[in-house]
Amino acid sequence: MKQQKALTLKTLTKSNVWEVEENDIFRMWETAEKESDFKDNRNHYMDVIRSAFEIEEIKIDKPEVIKKYEARDFKVGNIHFDDNDNKKWGIKKRAINRITDLTYENIHHISAAKLIEVLDRNFGGGWDSLSQSIQDIIESGFDISTTTLPKDRLHKPGGMYDKKVNDGYEVLEITKGLWVEAIFAKAKPKVENHHKHDDDNNDSMNNGFGDNYDEDFEDENPSENSYDDDDDDDFDEDKLTEESYRTTFETEEDLNLEAEDVADDDY
User: Fold this and answer.
1) How do 85-93 and 142-150 pair as beta strands?
2) How far apart are alpha carbons 29 and 79 in whole angstroms?
3) Which of 42, 194, 25 has the alpha carbon at shortest distance from 94?
4) Is the pTM of this model over 0.70?
5) Fewest C-beta atoms under 10 Å: which of 17, 151, 153, 253?
6) Quick one: CA torsion of 229, 235, 239, 242, rounded to 10 degrees?
7) Are 220 and 184 in contact, with CB atoms under 8 Å apart?
8) 2-37: per-residue pLDDT in tens?
9) Chain mean pLDDT for the chain
């Protein structure tokens, strides 16, 4: 809260702008208007604000029109952009509902629960179905680990699931037939080092008027480490995955070829 109160338009960036709300923008703009360099910087201020907020100019200043904006969750207020130009604007924080809404700038300003909500709303193919760029963005703000296990083994007492949840991780379960992929997420501590190059990515937005492994990473392949070590003695051939069968077949084929070569040489 102290950091938010200290923010001004001059100190606002495309990262920390996600920490403020609509009313803060109106307040900071009003304060900045009194600065001598305001006119020189107002386009920059607007660019930063647009990266996190939708902005619409309200050209018809009537109560019924304003109510329609407020019904869409816009906050309405007056903004002086030019001399003798008192505009009424509607401002609304950009929603983070889709995977494509995630950026290096806002990833540090959502909770692990919010991330799981976004992931759950957007895909069913598992962690590997996400593009590498989206994975990189998510992992810049969260510790992510995954495991894929049979449904009846995922919640084994004392297993990875219990350990992760007890350690504060949020979890998303994705059913894959008789198996379940669990994606665990926990927010990393915030750091001041941000990806500056991604600031430019937000510059391609509209003009603002209108809607517009880490080391803990675990990806347990069902054909490899899906079971605990103490279950090695309880090998069940029926639980071999398709990949395991394929590997076995290819190995046997190689052995047959070698056997034929030996037979030809003996002949």
Assistant:
1) unpaired
2) 7
3) 25
4) no
5) 253
6) 90
7) no
8) 444 578 999 999 999 999 999 999 999 999 988 889
9) 77
